[in-house]
What does this fold into?
Amino acid sequence: MSLSLSEVTWQKSLSQAIRDPKELISRLKLPENLLEPAMKSVQLFPLMVPESYLNRMELGNPEDPLLKQILPLELENETVQGFSDDAVGDLNVRQTPGLLHKYQGRALLMVSGACAVHCRYCFRRHYPYGEEPRTLAEWEPVWEALHSDTSIQEIILSGGDPLLLTDIRLQEICKRISEIPHVKRLRIHSRLPVVLPDRIHASLLELFQQLTAGGVIVWMVIHANHPNEIAGDAEIAIRNMLQAGIPTLNQAVLLKGINDNADTLVKLSEKLINLGAVPYYLHQLDRVTGVAHFEVAEEQGRALVRELRTRLPGYAVPQYVREIAGESHKISLLG
It folds into this structure.
């Protein structure tokens, strides 16, 4: 089957993403002393950044808040007490390959092991994606489990990034979900509207609208940490989702040197609400091996959110939460 023009466009953009630290440093005119540690750290976790996201970074600025999210550093090689490969306990709630059942009434499907950008603070950078189902036949135990558990009303597509699946594969998954009578909601967690905005094309939005019309409401959860991420084609993509009637929430991670100040978080929330998207969660960093240098103290996080409450309407203040392995819900850090 031939691909539509829109499918070709985003897949071409993905194929042109930068994967070589030398190219990244050259393109952004960064100091050459960043190259050696970057080359060492990509052996642990590869570099990947699409052109659209790169174009929102400031040339010659090693402190750019978007660059700091994707630039491999020597610090990733350090072993820090309290940080582990599976900090959120994903593997302990893996009911069957591809299916995580962590929360009451909700099930999470690991539909993709790939991402369009490799965030250096990623909480699943050590996840064994190679063990998850690939073929449609390998997904059958997942559908059987979902059909048999009538307590599940919501399915979350995650990974990796579920929007890296082709439209055809997404249609197949959505069809199977729509055939489960007790499932009423589909939540899609994706960074692509922010980092690879041309993935949000008309036929994809039509697919989600059709699913909603059939009785399974689609919610989109995007991931932006800094107001500079919501600009240009990314802003257009988010607006298009909202205009298509898809409720859109944002999850951010509190990151040292990137968004750990009130002015930045206020601007992020204002950009979101001015589009009609909801600032949903501000996550305390998941303590995964290799990401300790991004951690912000919880007390500082609490102070930041208290200040947000004085500067923003209530609906624009994200919930400040931490995920703890074994808990059946996110833990509020502010109350």
About this structure: The mean pLDDT is 94. Residues 262-275 form the longest helix (14 residues). The chain has twelve helices and ten strands.
